[in-house]
Every structure is written in structure tokens, then in C-alpha cells.
Amino acid sequence: MKIIDLEPGDPRLVTDLLPVLRELRPHLTPALFGEVYAEGHPQGLRFSAAYDSDGRCVGAAGWRIVAGTCDIRKLYVDDLVTAGDCRSAGVGRGLLAYLEDRAREAGCRLLDLDSGTQRTSAHRFYFRERMGVTAFHFGKELDAGTGPA
């Protein structure tokens, strides 16, 4: 397996990575994905793609390095997904190991991610990878257009 980082404008973002990413984020269209990456890249958002020996994208990760008062510096994983027909073949483990290496290289103290409460298969994977539940994550949906004028 080969893992590479894809920069904004790389056509493989849409042709290779997006179809895999949409298994986790089905709401993403090519246009919306482009908008998100254009806005997120200056904020540190990056995408990595895992390719099998046949050159097919079989895994995707969206991640960023974040500095804050709690963990000082961490690598936060926004997205981690393996193509459905390639699960349990080591793709997720390979991507996670790649991200751990990136985190260590960047001087991070933590690799962190959130996982939806319904994703029990993913939770089993994270536990197998020696990740622990370290916090509750709270969220509140906001109506569009309710911010300051």
C-alpha cells in the first residue's frame, strides 16, 4: 500500500479520494468538496489517499495539526475511511500508522478523532488500535443565517 498527500487542485482528489470519502460523507459533491478544501487548507486541512498495488484508492484520511491549550499540539483526524470492499485488509491500520508518524514528526502530543456514536464497527477498530475514549464531544446544530449581522 502506498499513501500520499494530495494538495488542492490535484485531480486525484475528485477522481480517486472523493469516491472513498463519500462512503463516510455521502453529502459531499465534487463542488462542495472543492469549496471545503479551498477554505480548510489554509487552516491546516490535508487529505491523504491510500492506494493498493493496482493503483486503486482504497482509503482516505482528512486531518490537520491543531494547537490549543488542552493538548498543546495534536493531529486531529477529520475523516478516516476505508473503501467498503477493502475493510479488514489493513488499510485503516496503515492510514492510522501513517498519521501517527506525521503527528510525531510535527511534535504532536496526541492523535485525536471523533467517531459517531452509531459507528460501532469503527469503535472496535479504534479500540484494537489502542485508542481510548478520552472525552465526550458535544454539538449543537445551528440554523443558517442566525449569526451576527
Description:
There is one protein chain. The chain is α+β, with helices and mostly antiparallel strands and 149 residues long. It has a single domain (2-128), classed as Aminopeptidase, CATH 3.40.630. Helix content is 30%, strand content 26%. The protein has 4 helices and 5 strands. The protein has helices spanning 12-21, 30-40, 91-105, 120-128, and strands at residues 2-6, 46-51, 57-68, 72-82, 110-113. The chain starts with a strand and ends in a 21-residue tail after the last helix. 20% of the residues are buried. The mean pLDDT is 92.
How far the N terminus sits from the C terminus, by CA atoms, comes to 49 Å
Instruction: Name the CATH class.
Output: Alpha Beta
CATH topology (fold) name: Aminopeptidase
Number of helices: 4
Short description:
This protein is α+β, with helices and mostly antiparallel strands and 149 residues long.
Helices, strands, pairings?
Layout: E1 2-6, H1 12-21, H2 30-40, E2 46-51, E3 57-68, E4 72-82, H3 91-105, E5 110-113, H4 120-128
Parallel strand pairs: 4-5
Antiparallel strand pairs: 1-2, 2-3, 3-4
